[in-house]
Specification:
This protein is mostly helical. It has eleven helices and no strands. The mean pLDDT is about 80.
């Protein structure tokens, strides 16, 4: 029996996930089929099923990878002195395929319980990271101590998700100005009251 090389296994798994993401961006979650993913990844269906049991399993794995990457970035950024810098390190208005894929994921979650569960799990993980970051900011006086950090985390996630549709609505949008405006909006929401800042 051939011994599995964990490094090569993970590399091939990532290749399949990258190919699947390209298919999802191009064809949508509904439109992308296992056969199209296999063609994009240049593997046979039998080979793909060695790594993933279904299209839903591929999407779940993509979400897990994104959460792991976000966790690593937040952990590294949160070690710095400025909580808002850490938050804004994750916040940028973009024209990449991400916005369309996010909307596809929301639509699919509305009709597919497995997708809804995966999306909710991802949101829970990001929410926890963000709430912890906000708590750190409150502890050092950078963020309004009266804010409910869990509610604030939920609202910020929704604002960031909503901002990802801006370029779909206006393809000529100035990305730098939009990003700065989004940051200003959140800074003003999180800012301690004037009397708290002067104490």
């Amino acid at each position: 029996m051939r011994k599995l090389d964990p490094v090569k296994h993970e590399e091939k798994r990532r290749e399949i996930l990258n190919a699947a993401e390209r298919c999802f961006v191009r064809d949508g979650l509904q439109g992308a089929s296992i056969s199209s993913i296999c063609a994009e990844a240049r593997i046979s269906p039998g080979h793909l099923y060695h790594y993933f049991s279904s299209k839903e399993a591929i999407v779940s794995a993509m979400i897990e990878v994104r959460l792991a990457e976000a966790t690593a970035r937040f952990t590294a950024l949160a070690e710095g002195a400025d909580v808002l810098d850490a938050l804004f390190g994750e916040m940028k208005v973009t024209r990449s395929g991400g916005p369309a894929l996010l909307l596809e994921a929301f639509a699919e979650a509305n009709r597919n319980p497995a997708m809804a569960k995966a999306l909710q799990g991802h949101t829970k993980g990001v929410h926890s990271l963000l709430a912890d970051l906000l708590e750190k900011g409150q502890a050092v006086g950078a963020i309004d101590p009266t804010l409910d950090r869990h509610m604030a985390a939920s609202l910020i996630i929704s604002i960031i998700d909503g901002s990802k549709t801006l370029c779909l609505r206006d393809p000529k949008l100035d990305l730098d100005k939009a990003t700065k405006a989004l940051q200003t909006l959140i800074i003003r929401y999180l800012a301690p009251p004037p009397h708290a800042r002067t104490q």
